[in-house]
Design brief:
About 5% of the residues have low confidence. The protein contains 2 helices and 9 strands. It is elongated, with a radius of gyration of 21 Å. Helix content is about 15%, strand content about 40%. With about 140 residues, it is of the alpha+beta class. The strands form 2 sheets. Strands 4-1-7-8-9 form a 5-stranded mixed β-sheet. The longest helix is centred in the N-terminal third of the chain and has 18 residues.
Length: about 140
Amino acid sequence: MCNLKSVALPLLLAFSLMLLPFSESIYFTNYHIHVRNDLPLLNSPPNHPNLLLHCKSKKRDIGDRPMVKGQDYTWDTKINFFRTTLFFCNARWVGHKSMSFDAFDAIRDEERCLEYHTSCMWSVRSDGIYFSFNNATWYNDYH
């Protein structure tokens, strides 16, 4: 029994020390996902929602979010141990147009969303869903 203690304790200590560099790793980072309604008003009144956003992951359903023009909806997530965290959204807007997109994919976004305050920025526009890693340059990721 004494032999087990003399081997297990140093191994446990070594393993704990190995985890220290991971204390600020992606597994402990809180990512902020933003989806902004940048659709034109068309025939909608200014304070009337013209976008219905529904986002969810395997374990968490955020539900339907009616959004007016210019509104930003935000939620937070962390990357799970297996790096399989995925939030996907369906955007529906006036004219019955609908588009689905991955708002957060751990493998794709773990690095690119670190640049701007650990935020993934999305903009729903009439010609697609745009992504920005700095809130200045936008890329049409979903046409």
